[in-house]
Amino acid sequence: MAAPYRLDDDSVVVIIGSGAGGGTLGNELAQKGIDVVILEAGARIEYEDFINDEWDSFAQLAWLDHRTTGGGWRVSKDFPNLPAWIVKAVGGTTTHWAGASLRFQEHEFKALSTYGKVEGANLLDWPITLAELEPYYAKAEDKMGVTRTHGIEGLPGNNNFKVFKAGADKLGYEKCHTGRMAINSAERDDRMSCQQTGFCFQGCKWGAKWSTLYTEIPKGEATGRLEVRPKSHVVRIEHNDDGKVTNVVYADKDGKLQSQKARIVCVAGNSIESPRLLLNSASAKFPDGLANSSGQVGKNYMRHTTGSVYAVFEKPVHFYRGTTMAGIIQDEAHHDPQRGFVGGYEMETLALGVPFMAAFLDPGGWGRSFASAMDGYANTAGLWIVGEDMPQEQNAVKLHATLKDQYGMPIPDVWFTDHANDVAMRNHAYRQGQALYEAVGAIRTFPTPPYPSTHNLGTNRMSEKAEDGVVNKWGQTHDIKNLFISDGSQFTTGAAENPTLTIVTLAIRQADNIAEQMTAGTI
Ligand SMILES: Cc1cc2nc3c(=O)[nH]c(=O)nc-3n(C[C@H](O)[C@H](O)[C@H](O)COP(=O)(O)OP(=O)(O)OC[C@H]3O[C@@H](n4cnc5c(N)ncnc54)[C@H](O)[C@@H]3O)c2cc1C
Ligand code: SF4
Q1: 352 CA from centroid of ligand 2 (Å)
Q2: What tens-digit pLDDT sequence spans the chain (523 residues)?
Q3: Minimal CA–CA distance to 378: which of 196, 160, 115?
Q4: β pairing state of 226-229 and 36-39
Q5: Sign of CA dihedral 127, 130, 135, 138
Q6: Ligand 2 neighbour 199 (Cβ under 6 A)
Q7: How far is the CA of 54 from the centre of ligand 2 (A)?
Q8: 198 pocket-lining for ligand 2 (C-beta < 6 Å)
Q9: How many other C-beta atoms can be found within 10 angstroms of the C-beta atom of residue 59?
Q10: Alpha-carbon torsion, ordered 57, 60, 63, 64, to 10 deg
Q11: 105, 496 in Cβ contact below 8 A?
């Protein structure tokens, strides 16, 4: 049967969420002739309607449903109702993302074996290796058009990159270039090349940056096997007496509850909504939530060890011109406990517009130091730190005890506290970032605290043994055979690299596995 599908069609694969994981999986399955319905909570906003203005774009695309926070992280003080900066729209956060696309390193799949036991951390090895993922990484890079792979040229360096590179050279860093970016450096895949407009975080109006919104989804739809239903907010997943999932209940565009039957359900709502949905689907048979026999659903929430360093120079840099993040230093990404922490971090160029700079530089701050930094905006350069944070059980997405959303479901309460390893890594990175800019004449440098999480990981983690995690090496839940997790929540550990390339890679691999199991009749 071809799209659109009936609500009582129990032969379809239902995917919840249309971002990096869900949008990719939907297309991959449709290309194999499998019938797919994607239920997406957000609206469908085509790229020509994106807004090149930071707050207006945020209002247009961000996930703004009520959330609360707790724990020791500064975000819970500075942005108590905004733990994460993610998107509610067709294409998910791939509309907002910057495009940095890096493979994980081999040892990062073996965090427990490589780092050993780290007190307070819930480390575990992934049940897969880099070698197993390599062919799928190659497919993902080709699909996304990642620069410096498959013979694709790197992007040109903007002024922010030139300052960054000069500082890197002074510090003796050797692995610095304009990055592996899922942004077209030349026309490719019927999409334009980057126009250097500098609004990557607001959605690329040119379609030069890869997003499932205008790559995977229309390609899947063209097969006639993929139906995307925008403004369809899933509230729970239901199951039969055998414990197999059977249907998904969602609020449609008019807020009316509908039930879509399914042969298989794949959850790809990003790492806050995905575990929340499993927890909110608790039943008499599964009183702690779906797929939660290990008690690990919602636990081990990771968000990468982040922070930024901005520096003001005597002369203009105009760092807001050109790509937001095309510049990387990978010399600190390796594991070297001599530095006082396990794991590593990347440094990546980053520019913010004036409105976001004012919000993030020193949240809630005012006074001479803050005002003079804003005065130096045109002369500012900036970089972002992204490093491996430690999974910890108490860092968790929980259901709020009393507050409910517009559909009567408990809202997520997101708890996070830095591990001592995260703090040591961030301080090291701040020092290196400041040294880099001071080496090329910075007048002042500003280590800046992390802002709401853009990388949300780990809350339905992958494990060899059912008692250690939620899903197996294919993203299939240990407890329920026809229930899969298809987003960053399946990450066992976070690694130092930006996560999306790995989310897409896992989705391509998962599609092969689902197709095989459907043919074999095991699901
Ligand atoms: C500003 C910014 C910059 C970034 N830059 C980079 C980068 O350079 N490199 C990188 O690797 N990553 C980057 N990221 C992170 C990247 O965007 C995410 O890691 C990635 O999109 C996550 O994929 P996902 O499939 O897990 O979730 P998403 O892409 O967020 O998709 C989840 C989708 O599920 C939908 N959904 C959620 N709950 C429900 C529900 N109950 N019912 C129906 N639909 C639901 C949401 O509306 C959303 O559309 C960036 C993120 C931001 C915000
Ligand atoms: S800088 Fe390039 S990738 Fe970024 S929004 Fe502009 S055209 Fe798109």
Answers
A1: 14
A2: 688 999 999 999 999 999 999 999 999 999 999 999 999 999 999 999 999 999 999 999 999 999 999 999 989 988 999 999 999 999 999 999 999 999 999 999 999 999 999 999 999 999 999 999 999 999 999 999 999 999 999 999 999 999 999 999 999 999 999 999 999 999 999 999 999 999 999 999 999 999 999 999 999 999 999 999 999 999 999 999 999 999 999 999 999 999 999 999 999 999 999 999 999 999 999 999 999 999 999 999 999 999 999 999 999 999 999 999 999 999 999 999 999 999 999 999 999 999 999 888 876 677 888 888 899 999 999 999 999 999 999 999 999 999 999 999 999 999 999 999 999 999 999 999 999 999 999 999 999 999 999 999 999 999 999 999 999 999 999 999 999 999 999 999 999 999 999 999 999 999 999 999 999 999 9
A3: 160
A4: parallel
A5: positive
A6: yes
A7: 14
A8: yes
A9: 11
A10: 100
A11: yes
- Ligand 2: which of 159, 178, 206 to mutate, most ligand atoms within 8 Å of CB? 206
How many Å apart are CA 76 and CA 324, to the nearest integer? Answer: 26
Closest ligand 1 atom, residue 235 Cα: 41
| 133: CB partners within 8 A, 6+ apart | 103, 104, 502, 505, 506, 509
To test the ligand 2 pocket, which listed residue (183, 187, 188) has its Cβ within 8 A of the most ligand atoms?
Answer: 183
Is residue 376 within 8 A of residue 312, CB to CB? The reply is yes
Sign of the dihedral defined by the CA atoms of residues 74, 305, 494, 420, in that order: negative
Whole-angstrom distance, CA of residue 310 vs CA of residue 448: 7
In angstroms, rounded to a whole number, what is the distance separating the alpha carbons of residues 45 and 204? 12
CA distance linking residue 81 with residue 206, whole number of Å: 32
Say whether the peptide bond before residue 4 is cis (omega within 30 degrees of 0).
Answer: yes
> In the chain, what are the helix, strand and coil shares in percent, each to the nearest 5?
30, 20, 50
3-state secondary structure 381-400: EEEEEEECCCCCCCCEEEEE
Distance CA 98, CA 203 (A): 9
Ligand 2 atom with least separation from CA of 192: 7
Which residue type does 125 have?
A: D
